[in-house]
Give the backbone structure.
Amino acid sequence: MFTGKLPLGRAVLRPIEPLILSQTRTTFSLLVLLPLLVASQGWQRIKLPARDLAYCFILGMLGVAVSNYFYYVAIQRTNVATAIIVQYTAPVWVLLYVVARGQQRLTLQKVGAVALAVTGIALVIDIFGTKSGPALHLDPYGLIAALLASFSFAFYNVGGHRILARHDRWRVLVWTLTAAAAFWLIVNPPWKIAAAHYAPAQWIFLFVFSMISVLGAFSLYFLGLQHLEPTRAIIASCLEPVFSILLAALLLGEVLRPIQTLGIVFVLAAILIVQRQEGSMTADSVVVEPIE
């Protein structure tokens, strides 16, 4: 999509920007999810107190919208492996936050998880300047975008934990999507979208992409939560970076050097260590997944 080479027809297509991708997937998802929820149980199905509604709007803008956008910028400017591995360090930042707030104790295992994650990131982005394999050229702005996406995702997890303790997931999701859609409508109003002159096939693709990556993914994940305890569910979701990197290698031809592969293993190990720590809290802990 970012190169205009998506095989949607014979014509040369205009590249789709990360902003449009982030905007359409939240907007299209909202336009489908909101009528379904209201039709099933009326407006009471999505009603929230004013304070929680404002909280959802902050969560939607600074969590969903920002993390989506910077994640796609990171993919555009670097590659899938770098973007998703850096973003998936968010559980480590969440751990540092709860330790700083005194909500959890600092242990050797937690310190080891943070050190492992930071080392893994350093290896993935080749900060040590190793000479094994072909040269790696990473865009500094892309790396910064990946880190910002990680921090925003961490904020989304911390904030989402609090609001989901009081309200069901679908109610929170519809309002966070509303906030994100409203935010993008101000940043990128309809006349600017029209001026981009995207092809009909691209709009169809964006709609299908929204249904699969937001509504489809969340529906399946919530279905899994009905049969798995939250800790096991999120550990299983840690396979997402693995599948993303494998698919990028197969479909996009992205090549990983051995040192980067080792870094990926370090980051995934750190995530699992952090989740084992979270699993020791309570069986009813709320788990929030990224809306990438």
The chain has twelve helices and no strands.
